[in-house]
Design brief:
With about 575 residues, the protein is an alpha/beta fold. Helices cover about 50% and strands about 25% of the residues. β18 (about 470-475), α18 and β19 (about 495) form a beta-alpha-beta unit. α7 packs antiparallel against α8 and α11 (about 310-330) crosses α12 (about 370-380). It is elongated. Bound molecules: ligand C2E and calcium ion (2 copies).
């Protein structure tokens, strides 16, 4: 009897323990924010647990009720979810699927686990349903940040490179073409500097929104950075041909954009185009090629479109090569100065020399300053180079003066970049003092590009130089905007008439008329004139006859090393 009582008590205790566990499992399910569905294969029991009500308004009591779930789903997810809900059909023990409900907002994940007996018959199935909407949204935001540009809302560079790669792979298979248009707003720096970053940003946004109107299945538009956009076009033809798109861009830009402050702005763009497979088979290289030709478009007058071709790339690569070698040359001061004599036309006396830099690369190849000076101006190397030129020229000058005592004028070419430096005048005066030369024996040759940017500031600097007694010469006159009226009031001593005029005076009547009127007007303004690049006696005689004061050119003397100038000075002793 006692034994029976003991057995009954034991069973009661076990039952209590079991219902305690059961409670615990229910609690875990309820607090997990998930819904669960249990299915026992033996008896066909369906039990729902957890937060079922917050997911569905219906109950699932038997297997056929699963169809209620399918009614809630977007069509394309029905099949994948069915496969997971009836996972036993595939014999798998575990699988999951993400799906979106018909409201297109709610995302659910269904995860199924199945137990099998030794004979591989399914025994129990548990399906866990999670709401992953928040997680999906966060992912979406991350994706947005990864693929979109915050300023314009356009795709960013990363996404562009990825899509361009896809276009290229497709074009390889379909033997098609992919064009990359590299679009850069002209003179954007002036907008940013002159009107402020906020206006600059709005300009970038408006241009971006306009360019985005070209987006379609086969056209991807992105904002690369700053004022640069890129377009990748798969199989460019018809309304998505480069010519057509460029035409629409030009037309739209011509109309101008109205900014939120009411200001109308009309900025042009320069476009470089490179195509797969002609230019390259790699996405990054294609973008690079398009960028290179965009620079070419900019340098040949802006507001234009330039197609990629091999010589442009060759030129570019050569410039890169020169740029690298130049860095080393600057470091080792691997330059020499040549000097070209200038003579008075009236007396044939030596007036002075123009200092011209020379550079031989490590293979003893002479690289023209016309090639490397513009590169040095772009990368800033012109500052150390220019300082070296000033010091070296003045050093030579003092040496000649000490030895031969001949009153020369040393003309030194100054790049606009050097001239714009705040410490330019101070530095120059420092060197002049150091070598104890008279300021009026030094003449600075500047080009009109110096005058373009900030006329008032430049004028002030010129006046300071003039106060010190330094001479100023305007180089390459006639090649820029060359309006004589703006010269009025500028402290200029000498005007150098560009070689392109001198070249044509023998053959072209209108050039003669222009040259004669320049010389006569310049004389009236009180400046001296130098004819540059005089190569023949006829040119020299002509320039002399029309009243040009000085002659410089191969006819009277090429640029030569310092020793040769010394020989010349010895002859004059
Ligand atoms: P530039 O200042 O106009 O110098 C005159 C150029 O014409 C020089 O070329 C000179 O050698 C060349 N030339 C002179 N007479 C004749 C002639 O009768 N026929 C021909 N065909 N050419 C003649 P270079 O030395 O090659 O210099 C080219 C340009 O490089 C210079 O043009 C100047 O803009 C720049 N450059 C040269 N040296 C310096 C420098 O030390 N500093 C700076 N910033 N620029 C320099
Ligand atoms: Ca010059
Ligand atoms: Ca010149």
């Amino acid at each position: 009897m006692d034994e029976l009582r003991y057995q009954i008590d034991l069973l009661k205790a076990m039952n209590q323990k079991l219902s305690g566990r059961d409670k615990m499992f229910r609690l875990v399910c309820d607090t997990s924010n998930n819904a669960f569905l249990y299915y026992g294969f033996d008896n066909g029991d369906v039990i729902t647990l957890g937060d079922w009500e917050s997911f569905f308004t219906f109950k699932v009591k038997e297997v056929k009720d699963f169809s209620f779930i399918f009614d809630e789903l977007e069509d394309k997810y029905i099949m994948p979810v069915r496969n997971v809900l009836f996972l036993e059909k595939s014999g798998k023990t575990k699988d999951s699927v993400e799906c979106c409900l018909k409201d297109k907002k709610t995302w659910l994940e269904f995860e199924t686990r199945i137990s099998y007996d030794e004979e591989e018959k399914p025994t129990d199935k548990i399906i866990c349903i999670k709401n992953i909407t928040k997680f999906k949204k966060q992912n979406e935001e991350l994706r947005y940040m990864a693929y979109y540009d915050g300023l314009t809302g356009l795709y960013n560079r990363n996404y562009f490179v990825m899509r361009l790669g896809e276009f290229i792979r497709r074009a390889k298979e379909e033997k098609s073409i992919v064009s990359v248009m590299f679009i850069d707003i002209d003179d954007f720096r002036k907008v940013n500097d002159g009107m402020g970053l906020i206006v600059g940003d709005e300009v970038v946004q408006q241009y971006g929104q306009f360019l985005d109107t070209f987006s379609e299945e086969n056209v991807v538009v992105c904002h690369m950075n700053s004022d640069v956009y890129c377009m990748a076009i798969y199989d460019p033809c018809g309304s998505r041909s480069v010519e057509h798109i460029h035409k629409i861009i030009q037309e739209r830009i011509h109309q101008g954009f109205t900014l939120s402050n009411g200001m109308d702005i009309r900025l042009t763009v320069s476009v470089g185009v490179a195509e797969y497979p002609e230019a390259s088979t790699s996405a990054l290289e294609l973008i690079n090629c398009a960028e290179i030709v965009m620079f070419k478009a900019k340098s040949s007058g802006k507001a234009s479109l330039q197609y990629f071709d091999a010589p442009i790339l060759q030129d570019f690569l050569q410039n890169v090569d020169i740029e690298n070698k130049l860095k080393e040359a600057v470091f080792n001061k691997n330059f020499t100065m040549y000097f070209q004599p200038q003579y008075y036309t009236g007396t044939s006396r030596l007036r002075g020399v123009e200092a011209l830099i020379r550079w031989k690369d490590e293979n003893n190849r002479m690289i023209s300053p016309a090639v490397f000076i513009p590169i040095a101006e772009k990368n800033g190397a012109i500052i150390p180079i220019g300082n070296w030129v000033i010091e070296e020229s003045i050093k030579n000058y003092t040496e000649w003066k000490r030895k031969y005592g001949y009153p020369l004028i040393m003309s030194i070419n100054i790049s606009a970049i050097q001239y714009k430096r705040k410490d330019f005048v101070e530095r120059l005066m420092g060197i002049i003092k150091k070598y104890d030369v008279k300021p009026d024996e030094i003449e600075l040759e500047i080009t009109e590009s110096v005058l373009i940017d900030d006329f008032a500031e430049v004028k002030e600097k010129l006046l300071t130089l003039r106060d010190y007694g330094i001479r100023i010469s305007l180089d390459d006159f006639g090649t820029g905007f060359s309006s004589l009226s703006y010269l009025n009031g500028l402290p200029i001593d000498t005007l150098k008439i560009d070689k392109s005029f001198v070249d044509k005076v023998g053959s072209d009547a209108s050039t003669r008329i222009i040259t004669e009127s320049i010389v006569s007007m310049v004389n009236k303004l009180g400046y001296e004139t130098v004819a540059e690049g005089v190569e023949t006696k006829e040119q020299m005689d002509y320039m002399k006859n029309i009243g040009c004061d000085m002659i410089q050119g191969y006819f009277l003397g090429k640029p030569v090393p310092a020793e040769d100038i010394e020989k010349l000075l010895i002859e004059l002793l």
